[in-house]
Specification:
The complex is a heterodimer of chains A (about 800) and B (about 230). Chain A is α+β, with helices and mostly antiparallel strands. Helices cover about 55% and strands about 15% of the residues of chain A. In chain A, strand 14 and strand 15 form a beta hairpin. Chain B is an alpha/beta fold. Chain B has a single domain, classed as P-loop containing nucleotide triphosphate hydrolases (Rossmann fold). In chain B, about 35% of the residues lie in helices and about 30% in strands. Chain B has seven helices and ten strands. In chain B, strand 9 and strand 10 form a beta hairpin. The chains are: A alpha+beta (about 800), B alpha/beta (about 230). At the A-B interface, helix 11, helix 19 and helix 22 of A face helix 1, helix 2 and helix 3 of B. The structure holds adenosine-5'-triphosphate and magnesium ion.
Amino acid sequence: MKIRRATIHSYWLMFVATVITVSIVTSSQLITGRIGLLLDRQASELLAADLVVLSTEPLDDRYREAAQDHRLEVSQSLSLRTAIFVDDSPQLVELKAVDESYPLRGRLERARQVTETKSTSEQGPVRGEVWLDSKLAQLLGGNLDLGDRQFVASWLLTYEPDRGGTIFNLAPRVLMNLADLADTGLVVPGSRVQYRMMFAGEQADVTVFKNWLTNNLVPGEEIQDLENARPEMRRALERTRKFFSFAIVLTLVIAMAAIAITARYTSIQEMPKVAMLRAFGVSKRKLLVYYLRQLGLLWFSATLAGGVIGWLSQFPLQWALDGWFGRSLPQIIGIGPFLTAALVGLLALSGFSLPFLLNAMATPPMQVLRTVVDRRSWFRGLMISASAIVAVFLVLMLLMQSSLLAMATLMLILVCALLLPVILGLMVKTLLLSSRRHFWLRQYLLSRLRASSRGAIYVMSGFSLVLIAILLIAVVKDELLGAWQAQLPEDVPNYFMVNIRSDDVVEINEFLKQRQIEASAPYALIRARLAQINGVRVEDIKFDHPRAPHQIIHTFNISYAEALPDQNKIVSGEWINDSGDAQISVESGVAERLGLSLGDELTFSVGSSVMKGPVTSIRSVVWENFKPNFYLMTNAGLVQDLPQTWLLSATIGEQNKADLKQLLKRFPSVTLLDITEMMARVQSLVDKASFALQFFFLFALASAAIVLLAAIQTGRHEREVESSLLRALGARSRQLYRVHILEFTLMGTLIGFFSAAIATLAGWAISVYFFNIEYQFSVMVWVYSVVSASLVLTIAGTLVSRRVYNVSPMKILRS
Amino acid sequence: MAEENFCIILDQVGKTVETPEGKLDILINISFQVRFQEAVVIKGASGSGKTTLLGLMAGLDQPSSGDISLLGKGMATRNEEQRSAIRAGKVGFVFQSFHLLQGATALQNVMLPLELSGSDQAFELAQTSLEKVGLAPKTHTPVEHLSGGEQQRVAIARAYAPRPSILFADEPTGNLDAVTGHQIADLMFDLRDELGTTLVLVTHENELLERGDRQILLESGRLISQ
Ligand SMILES: Nc1ncnc2c1ncn2[C@@H]1O[C@H](COP(=O)(O)OP(=O)(O)OP(=O)(O)O)[C@@H](O)[C@H]1O
Ligand SMILES: [Mg+2]
């Protein structure tokens, strides 16, 4: 009767573990796809589109047609510098003319007055009207002459999604309707106009179209997407996505560990039954069919239940996230997620439980009469591992399509799964060696952990794996959030001052100093185009990196400085010295994309002049710190005579806002750029993603609970027998109680200690190699790990031992 | 007869258990005494209550009626905890299915009851005991690697190591072949002779039955002869 009850119990655990696995897959498939889409969309808003082509020449209408063929929306805008009169003095403005479709992504924000509340708008100005930058607020409500035409200045433009496209070189904005532009007569041959054609649509369509576009661009045209336009956004986005898929794999690993542990437990429970049936002459084939049917039933019902739970799970998440994103999650329809989940469930279940069941099937009938020592167990161990490896591998391939991270995660799991029992076993053995003269308690506990009949080592391994995965999610999540925060310096600048003329630099610096406004060193900006690498025209070089073409058509902002800018780090070579030799320092991402290494000779064209020098250092840059950062820096001598403007970042508090007005008055060419908005966007992106992840943590915890249950269930019988044996041998309650509690505490401590070590190691590797963030060693991980593991196991164990230590010693005579 | 002369005294002992089919009397009105250094063998058909009786005598369980005095101490009124204290170091057990601690060595198994009763010479006593059962070469072998006969010898070493006053054994040779069973029986009686232990054993084996000083026959929970 005991066996029967335990059997039902073990099947039940296995069932729940499978349900959790299926739910995780369903839920993640349903949700992460949508969140990924949403993250992309949100980021796209910064471009007002998914893809943009820029040129100083009018753009071919072929692009529009091709885009429409690719089912994309198209919008066009055009911007140019022009002067308007403010109080009879000329003011340079950045005029932008947009069509009715603009913006394709994101929304405009406008207000009637500086003081009035902002409202959003899906469209730019109607014909005959213009919207003005808040710096031109005094013109609001009046008429504004632009070239040959007069406009009504109807709104203040308070937010424009693609304003920061390149964050430098911005004069106050005037936004108008594209249809009015021709009437103004402002665009004449020779005017410096930037034409933009913007595209948006389904991601797949955009990708196809982008390929087409790349092959059809004419020189002088440039493609912008998140990749090249917003490095800080792209980085945050990439990291978040990586982290997301990583966390889901780990959650899944936990769930699969739960299946493995419960399957093992089930097979052990089944062994006596199998032995008996075999002894009665039931054929192996019959038994196999019986168990396969059992497993099939379990899989089928678990898939149904898991599918329903997974499907339901998207709602709370969606509700929570909708509020935050301010729009509903894009829908993913179809049975794909459910099929994938069912397949993963099947793979996991068969991969982990079949070998165990085959193992149980091989139970010699002799087992009925007495314990038979199995001498072929290493072969079975191998078979079990191999089958589990294949299952995990298939599942990961199915879910992650062979990404590097998936492979790395697999490696981690394999190493853990294979080494955990060995290492834990060794740990226990080493502790055991220390004393041969004493047995009771410490040695006794350790020998209990070592006893193969209890499978304590396997259960501990499973639990460790679960804990490692949970710790890793927590560690990397903190890293992800923390890295972003940590890289923001104490004095986060909130303004960029750009477009500073060389003649004004000293004065502006003086001005800021007088008013005690904190500012970065001023940096010169020289706009340059990369022409040659090692004397070969870049057009003629075949680059390996897919992003290299973008980089080449990109105009670089080159700067020079004596000191290495804040939070830049020299990866190789040496920072620019004052020898006066030509020296170029390249940001590591660019170096990687263009395949540059130290000593490569770069030639740039700056306007009509040419400038060249060797790469003397490669630098890593923290783009997220919102300080002036540059892809390329040179020694001063190389570029200081070329045309340039200056920029600096400053922290301007409320009390200095008045000074700002003064500054703008004295230096009209300077443009102020508020970057708090941009920072807030990156921050919210990371926040939302990490919230969504907390949700998967629930699944992780549920699986952990199952593993814990299995851990405590396994060996319960042995524990009861031993309890009554100790009783018979005269042990007191206190002694028994102590043994049981200590056994679980010892298990917990070993597991916690070990998991913290592995999680730290893996966390370091993952942070450094996959997220490119500095790893901060955290003592708290160890504390959490050891305390939580020993606490959870002790408490759970104590609850169980209460029953166990009350077992009558008579049991020993009857078992 | 003075009570001190007896190691175990059973006085109208009965054991009743609750079953789904109602109350079941396993033992009914059993009275007898066991002298110090006596070897008492309990026999009877399967299900006649032998194991139950042995458990009661050893203080592993409480009688439903009557009283048992073990080493001069009444069992009926003592709780499990107090009975444990009486057993510690004074009572040894040998079981049909050995019941050694898996994962521990032979030596550690023998040391266990010694250390439980607070002996500070556990290591030495355990080694001596293992030598006596002829297992000196296997001292540090994990018990699961020992043969059945060897395992039972470890169990005997464990039982005798604290020099108990009484040794209880429930079919100690039941799981062994005839030759090994014979050796185990020899060992148990030799050690009893050497240490002057009282022996209470349940068995079907004729050999053991004959070697006992006295036989107690149970039938359906009743004492038929002694
Ligand atoms: N807790 C219990 N509940 C119900 N019945 C019990 C319980 N304990 C013992 N019995 C019954 O009491 C009877 C005597 O059991 P016991 O184990 O003492 O027999 P035994 O003489 O040792 O038999 P065997 O030679 O087969 O070992 C059996 O019929 C058994 O089923
Ligand atoms: Mg019996």
